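Q: Fold this one first, please.
A: Sequence and structure below.
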Amino acid sequence: MMMNRRAFSTALLAGAAASLLSTRGTAATTTPVKARNVVLVHGLFADGSCWSEVIARLQAAGLNATSVQNPLSTLPDAVASTERVLARQDGPTVLVGHSFSGMIVTEAGVHPNVSALVYVAARAPDAGEDYTALAKTFPTPPASAGIVFDGDEGRLSEEAFLRDFAGDLPKEKAKVLYAVQQPFHKALLSGKTTHAAWRTKPSYYAVSTEDRTINPDLERFMAKRMGAKTIELKASHVSLISHPEEITRLILEAAGQQG
């Protein structure tokens, strides 16, 4: 028997609610250990420089920050690039991900050096979960229509980038970010996580209430499901650039540097 979309959505959310009952609370009630290292991972339509505003603030606070250059090829490749950076850290490390890289944080976050996780308007799947199916239970955000492909490589059109990805930035600044946009491979989108680090690590989530790339209600759902300490920012998808002070404060809290 075929399930219609509403029935599928109801069943999926019911299953997620059941999972929530068994997992929520671990992350929310665990106090993070003090960390001096922060590893930041970028998502689609960006490169490692998107963290520059946050990095400068973390360094000013005395933390060691490293931005991973996500290859945007396959999920295993992306996870491996992050794990190599994590292995170089000399102690407890906060792992931070924006957008798609929440997949990487969820998978690589089980690394023993990781003391806490921070999701910035990011995907936060459960182990083995079909994120695309989960996302379809919420209204599709406008940016999805702006993805264009050259063979197996995808990117956002300039119009969609300026309006739906970085809509709260000055146009001149958004165009600079557009210029360094890195294409992603279709194979990246088919990957599924095998671990859910947020089940066992203290987790934090920054919801972008004006997000046109990931549905804000989907962000809220994922944050609540993981029991994350959550803040909401009136921001586009790139809150790490438009609200770097608030994102930095959340990371410092995850690092046990402030309450």
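Q: Good. Now the second chain.
A: Here it is, same layout.
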Amino acid sequence: MTQTPATGVRVGVQIQPQQADYGQIRDAVLRAEDLGVDIVFNWDHFFPLYGDPDGKHFECWTMLGAWAEQTSRVEIGALVTCNSYRNPDLLADMARTVDHISGGRLILGIGAGWFERDYDEFGYEFGTAGSRIADLAAAMPRIKARWAAGNPAPTRDIPVMIGGGGERKTLRVVAEHADVWHSFGDVETLRRKSAILDEHGAAVGRDTASVVTRSLAVDGSDPDEVGDELLAAGVRLFTCSAGGPGYDLTNAAAWVRWRDARA
């Protein structure tokens, strides 16, 4: 991932692919890039998470292919892909392709999955939280091996973002495989789980304090109130979200201004 000069502080915005026509989503992505955010994310679900549960919704990876052509500067990715929905080798090849379409701007955000309706209605085995995390752990070496075997190879080492906060299992997978860890919660929760991540890192031989970027959801937070404390706690990627159909980017704009004031 590229870094904002001087501080390494970055801002992401998740454009929720729900409750909107695709033209409204496309417009929101353009506005986000023009605003100056560093990364534009969508998510990987098949039904809305908020609002009308049967409202408009679009698929993640076909959308990322379109975003790769539409945008020119921002990095793009899912926050996050559900590992359960695609064969890991297929997912790796999809990611490699979007990486090339975008000119090396893809982040592979991935997680174990949790939204049971997706599983039930699309015919996937829901299993248990433990089985889904074990599947994610098993998928990561396959993804990386498929990238290594691809022709052409990815344009770069595609950054892997893993989302989740399970202290015993998920953070172990983060320690082993992630370049970015995405989490939720207040600063105290972040500090505690970040320390646990570093314990896992020591166990697997990775200096996660220096090689794993901390990303945090900051929806609705005022950067002038919480930004410096989160920065001191180790957060370097601050991510907010915007929902359809209007896609209000006011919060993202505030974080961009805060970022730029520290550059």
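Q: Anything worth noting on the second one?
A: The beta strands are 10-15, 39-42, 75-78, 81-82, 106-111, 160-163, 180-183, 213-217, 235-242.
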